[in-house]
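> call design_seq(struct)
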């Protein structure tokens, strides 16, 4: 009885420490389940959980040793039953710990994959942007070349127009010179008509000749202007 009474305090303390470590392990397992990463953080949490399991296992062994040292069989069996319950709870916590690690590692792997895919998408977007810029530059260059060709054609057309106007100007000058020559011929005919006015037959002949010359000149000019191919 004295041994049993003396062992009540250590048993109670050991039991309290077991409960404390059990609660701390459950909280640590939840932290592992919620851990966003990286793997180094998960490693630190697992190291802390291992240490708590080591302390918990030691306290359970101490409680089992105390139970076997009890004088009363009823107290011995009661403590051994508590030890068995604590062992089962520890096994449950270990299973939950393994599941939390698997879930956390899976979440970290998925996160790393997402980051990798985002990096690839970013590279693909940059590549697409570069290709778009190159295509835009090529289109701008092609447009500038097209404008340059159009301007060259316009300049060529302008040169042809200027040349046509120059040819027309020369033609008008030539016609003016011909009309001046025809005017001189008419004046000469008038002088002849005036000079030989009194001589009817001669005058008529001269007038006829002058008119014929005039008409011939006019016909010649008209022929030159209207029928240049004849």
């Amino acid at each position: 009885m004295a041994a049993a009474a003396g062992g009540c305090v250590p048993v109670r303390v050991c039991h309290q420490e077991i409960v404390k470590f059990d609660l701390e392990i459950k909280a640590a397992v939840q932290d592992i389940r919620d851990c966003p990463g990286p793997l180094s953080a998960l490693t630190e949490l697992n190291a802390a959980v291992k240490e708590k399991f080591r302390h918990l296992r030691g306290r359970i062994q101490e409680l089992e040793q105390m139970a076997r040292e009890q004088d009363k069989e009823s107290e011995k069996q009661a403590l051994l039953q508590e030890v068995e319950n604590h062992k089962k709870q520890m096994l449950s916590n270990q299973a939950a710990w393994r599941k939390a690690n698997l879930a956390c590692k899976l979440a970290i792997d998925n996160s790393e994959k997402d980051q990798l895919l985002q990096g690839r998408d970013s590279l693909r977007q940059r590549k697409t942007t570069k290709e778009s810029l190159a295509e835009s530059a090529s289109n701008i260059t092609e447009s500038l070349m097209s404008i340059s060709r159009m301007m060259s054609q316009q300049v060529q057309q302008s040169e042809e127009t200027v040349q046509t106007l120059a040819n027309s100007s020369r033609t008008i000058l030539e016609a003016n010179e011909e009309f001046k020559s025809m005017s001189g011929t008419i004046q000469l005919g008038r002088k002849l008509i005036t000079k030989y006015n009194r001589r009817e037959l001669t005058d008529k002949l001269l007038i006829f000749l002058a008119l014929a010359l005039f008409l011939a000149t006019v016909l010649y000019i008209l022929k030159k202007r209207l029928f240049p191919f004849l």
